[in-house]
């Protein structure tokens, strides 16, 4: 568990943002995939869905508890 988000919360939150994004999804490539984004519980989430609505990926961008590794693998908070 990381920062209070277990696997189920992560998956459910990504699905929630994909289904109900804060902003209209934008086409991200010529394959027709769309980028979605939204903030839940203080964490900004981004991800991509296929033209038929399948979630390809979702990940935290910034917010409470979000870290990003530097080139040496050391985690640093992302505001």
From TrEMBL:
Q: Where is this region: Disordered?
A: 20-39, 50-79
Q: What region holds the Bacterial EndoU nuclease domain?
A: 5-61
Pfam families under this entry? Answer: EndoU_bacteria (PF14436)
Question: Per UniProt, what is one GO molecular function of this protein?
Answer: endonuclease activity
**Under which name does UniProt file this protein?**
EndoU nuclease-like protein
Q: In which organism is this protein found?
A: Saccharopolyspora spinosa
Taxonomic lineage is:
Bacteria, Bacillati, Actinomycetota, Actinomycetes, Pseudonocardiales
């Amino acid at each position: 568990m990381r920062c209070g988000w277990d696997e189920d919360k992560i998956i459910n939150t990504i699905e929630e943002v994909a289904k109900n994004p804060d902003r209209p999804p934008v086409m991200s490539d010529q394959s027709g995939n769309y980028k979605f984004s939204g903030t839940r519980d203080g964490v900004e989430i981004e991800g991509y869905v296929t033209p038929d609505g399948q979630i390809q990926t979702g990940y935290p961008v910034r917010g409470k508890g979000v870290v990003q590794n530097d080139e040496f693998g050391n985690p640093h908070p992302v505001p």
